[in-house]
């Protein structure tokens, strides 16, 4: 039996269903760079350079893509301040703040158990 999930808003979604839109969101949030970027923004609005320094090892291209995807889904808000040069900050929206806690728990769990993982 193939399970499907309508894309219209309704009371029940099934992330295991092949067509469920939940899968796209799960893919975004389960991505290491998304989880780390959200964690870095828990401290408040961040400029691009500050985020890149905090997320050691991320390229500018990947950070840009990650922030765009998070912004498109409503987890992050991008604010441009008119200055020379332009001043851009990224911060979590209410939706982003709501997912920050479970992601923080996951990051903490990984740090606490990394030595047990083969």
Concise summary:
The protein is mainly alpha-helical. Helices cover 50% and strands 12% of the residues.
Short key terms for the protein model shown above:
5 helices, 3-stranded antiparallel β-sheet, 3 strands, mainly alpha, 118 residues, 50% helix
Structure description:
- The chain has 118 residues and is mainly α.
- It has helices spanning 22-30, 32-41, 48-54, 60-72, 94-113; strands at residues 46-47, 76-81, 87-92.
- Helix 2 crosses helix 5.
- The protein is globular.
- The mean pLDDT is 91.
Please render the helix and strand layout as text.
Blueprint: H1 22-30, H2 32-41, E1 46-47, H3 48-54, H4 60-72, E2 76-81, E3 87-92, H5 94-113
Antiparallel strand pairs: 1-3, 2-3
């Amino acid at each position: 039996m193939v399970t499907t999930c309508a894309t219209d808003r309704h009371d029940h979604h099934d992330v295991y269903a092949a067509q469920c839109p939940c899968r796209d969101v799960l893919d975004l949030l389960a991505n290491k760079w998304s989880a780390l970027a959200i964690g870095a923004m828990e401290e408040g609005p961040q400029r691009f350079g500050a985020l890149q320094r905090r997320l050691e090892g991320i390229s500018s291209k990947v950070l840009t893509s990650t922030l765009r995807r998070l912004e498109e889904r409503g987890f992050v808000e991008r604010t441009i301040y008119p200055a020379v040069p332009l001043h851009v900050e990224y911060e979590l929206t209410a939706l982003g703040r709501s997912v920050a806690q479970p992601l923080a728990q996951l990051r903490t769990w990984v740090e606490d158990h990394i030595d047990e993982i083969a």
